[in-house]
Every structure is written in C-alpha cells, then in structure tokens.
Amino acid sequence: MEPTRRVVAGLTGAAFFLVGVGATAVILNGGITGDGAGGTGGAGTTMPRPSSPIAGETRTVSVSLPQGSGTPGTPTPSLSFPPPASDSPFVSALPSQHTTGFVQVGANLVYYAVDGSIIPVQPVPGLGVQVKSGKANYYALYQNPYGLAVGAYAGEFKPLVSMGQADGSSAETGGIVLEGPVVAGLISDQLAAIQSDDDRWIVALPVDIRSTTNSVVQVTFDQFGLAGWSNAPRVLVRFTGSLPIAEAIPNNGGYHVLVEGLGPTAWQVIDPARLSLPSGSIDPAHSMNELLLYGEGTPSLHGTPIKRDISHDGKVPIGQPMLSAASDVSVSLVVNGSHADLGPDKILTVGGVPVFVASS
Length: 360
What we know:
This protein is mainly beta. It contains 2 helices and 24 strands. Strands 10-9-12-13-22-17-16-15-20 form a 9-stranded mixed beta sheet, with no helix packed on it. It has a 6-stranded mixed beta sheet with strand order 6-7-8-11-24-23. It has a 3-stranded antiparallel beta sheet with strand order 3-4-5. A hairpin with a 5-residue loop joins β9 and β10 (170-172). The chain is globular. The model is unreliable at 1-93 (pLDDT under 50).
C-alpha cells in the first residue's frame, strides 16, 4: 500500500503537512549469554580525552563532528564531565593500576575510561547486569514487569554516549540499549506520569547503537529539523557508519518508509495511523503516532539501498528493524505547526541516561 502523500518535499520545497511517525521499540534476542551485537558497522565521533585529570576539576571537551553532519549553523557541542572526587567510593575501591573497561566496585558496575573518568552503569528496574566478553549486558530478574523469562537477555549499556542537557551543555551519560518489551514498559510508566494530554508523548531513540565501539554517539537538540527549517525542534543522533533503525512506538500502526533523496529528509518513516489524524493539533489518543523519524543519506534494507518507498501497514513489534541509516537520524513531533518543543525532558531516560531501542 502506497501512502497517499509525501510528508516533506525536500530542501527546496515549501513547508508541507508532515504525516507522522512510525515506530517503536525493540526486541532483542534472549539469553544471558547473548552478546547483544546488532546491525552493521557504525561508530560515533571519537572524543578526545585529557590525559591527566585533576581532582575536583571539571573538564570540557570540544567534539569535532563528521564532515557533512548536521545542519549549517548548528553549534558544535562540548562535553563536560567532572572527574571522580578523591574520596569517592568508586576511586578508593578501584585498583591503582587499571585497564579501560567495566569494573565491579562493590555492588556497583562502572566503566573506567582511558583518562580515568568513571561512567556508572545505570541500573534498570527489573533487570540485572553482568559483564560478558567486555560488554555490560542486562538480563531479566525474577518477576520482572516486562514479561521476560528469568535470565533472558534484555539489552546492553554503552558507555560512550553523550546527551545534550537542559542548560545547553553536553554530558557523557552513557546509553542504554533495551529490548522491545522493556522499552514499552518504560514508555508506559513515563507517559502515565505526564499530566497534560498534549505532552503525553516520549521519544525512545530508534537507533540500535550496540555495534559502536571506541567512539562517542552524540544525542543533540536543535531547531533545524525536517527540510532545514528553523522552526522544527528535533533530537538528533549523530554517528558514522551504518546502524539499524528500529520501530520505537509500542502502539504503532505499522510503518511507511518514504524515500525523497533530498537533504535532511532524504528518507522518512511515518506511522500510517498519522494519515488519518489532523495535522494542526496533537491528538491525545495518538500523540506517539505523530512522531516523524527521518535522516540524510541513502537508507538500506538487508544491505540493499532503498530507492523506492516501502510500506508495512499493520501492527509491528517494538524493535522491528525498518532500515539501516548511514548518517544522522532525527526525530520530531510534526503537528501543531511543527513547533512542539523537543528537548532532553522528552527523551526516554533511566536515571538521566538515554534509552535506545534494539533491533531484533
């Protein structure tokens, strides 16, 4: 089934009504022993680290973005992260000689970076975490709320992820990549805590970053989404290589992949439920379906470039792989004149750590 209209006409077109967003969520393969590797290639921009951290000093690192990445006029983010205090229980428990990687410190699991900075592995309700083959894998605990079998693989913690903060800075938070049922449960919990109907939507980042290594994936926010217009707030996931893009909306109606081949919206993914919704206001019953996923470059499916529109009308599981992207991926809420604010408060997080959807 072909969609009845395009959502964006490209960089040279006037603003059009955008037709929504497909997508949601993540189903990973089970088993504590699973490595959790997903997709192909992919790495973010390598973040330089100071070699001699000074106790009590906050370090700010400018990040050079990949050429052609992002939108002209978008500022280059800085990463600010404090070193551990000398009396920190993490520091006192760590060996004086260490190697880069995950370290168990009492009941806590942390990632010890090359420069000595420490990134705590964020716990997820109902899940445990263990290190296997150098990866911090989540697994289901007894009576977890996600319907997972005890010990089933549930995701992975990726330490080299930075996210923009409300004050305009960028912090190295790490990132959590989770299986679809877990993401769906977390989304449900966070939506239930939102008071206003118009605000009852949340973005689980639909990029499966598990295959990235030794480089930083950047989650940033700006106003230059869609076809480069300065009135379309978006969250932007920056990386290099090719990464899987997964459905991230629990109650989706399927998905359409629209291939335009122009600018920031060279390709788009919309939820077909969006086609029947008004474009000028948020529908409280379908606000999640009104998210639009889009990106630059040429998308691919199973290694083959997508040169025409594809569609899937019908319920798909959260975590269903839809395509692979070779450049930055954006998400916007494309209703109410495309002016709906999208900042760190609208990203699905656990303890301030952004949640990514794994593709199955």
